[in-house]
Amino acid sequence: MTSxxxxxxxxxxxxxxxxxxxxxxxxxxxxxxxxxxxxxxxxSSFGDLRPNTPKSNxxxxxxxxxxxxxxxxxxxxxxxxxxNTIVPQLAEKxxxxxxxxxxxxxxxxxxxxxxxxxxxxxxxxQIPILTATGPNQVWSWDITYIKTKxxxxxxxxxxxxxxxxxxxxxxxxxxxxxxxVAADTLDRICNEHNISEVWLHSDxxxxxxxxxxxxxxxxxxxxxSFSRPAVSNDNPFSExxxxxxxxxxxxxxxxxxxEVAEKWMTGFVYWYNHVHRHSGIKYVTPHERHTGAxxxxxxxxxxxxxxxxxxxxxxxxxxxxxxxxxxxxxLNGKLTKKIIQKLA
Length: 344
Prior knowledge:
Elements: H1 4-19, H2 24-30, H3 35-43, H4 63-73, H5 83-92, H6 100-109, E1 130-132, E2 138-147, E3 154-162, E4 168-174, H7 179-193, E5 198-202, H8 206-209, H9 211-220, E6 222-226, H10 236-246, H11 258-274, H12 286-291, H13 294-311, E7 329-331, H14 333-343
Parallel strand pairs: 2-5, 5-6
Antiparallel strand pairs: 1-7, 2-3, 3-4
């Protein structure tokens, strides 16, 4: 590959020969150069445009500039500062070396991109992870707004579900968002399902962490688990259920009275638990999964697919669909694995 400097030199020689009376074609043939190549080199003001040509980066810092950044950041005056505050201070003194992002990049390259203040850095809360291997081991719950016909006025839906089966285990609708209502609802649900011990996961709302709710949970033998503050992804099962509820065909959007809302909710819960084929549990209903009936259902599906494959294997590009029973359900397990993969 001919470098830019070499091309410039060759173009100069050919131009000199032409100026001295030589024909352009003959001058190019003498040095075994295509005439069109010479013309392109002569007329180009952008350098070598070929994709594999090494490009010089005008934004790249020199070693001297990088060392100067490190020296400044490690001065006593700036040891507790971030590049976002160092660069403006240097500008006030008439000094500019590089942008804030370049400062960060140089610090990272030299393993100095760490917390620089004297106070303790913010605590990184551990992602809550719960594992269920059967029903009534881990529940998730949350509260969502339900619109009324009066603008600005809402009802509150308290909704509890089992993450193993996705079955809705209990609910109530109230005019208020209250820890007392939540505690009474949990008490009733635990008695209905004969629950003596279960993990209950929720976000950090005041009804979830109020003294009434926590004391009732302790009395019932219910163990508390909470999302990290301001991280809605830590409660994905309840969030997904609320979306299914509010995007369900026929959802009215708003209700006249609590009685009307309760009637609609009763129908939804029956549909969700007994009719709805849930994608997260191999398209069986939550109730089938909760009662263990899904094991035989999935087994029957596998037999049907295997028989169809044997009859006409040429129609199958690969293996038959996976109908293996899901033995373990994790709350935030996939989220943690993604974070670990990014850090690896």
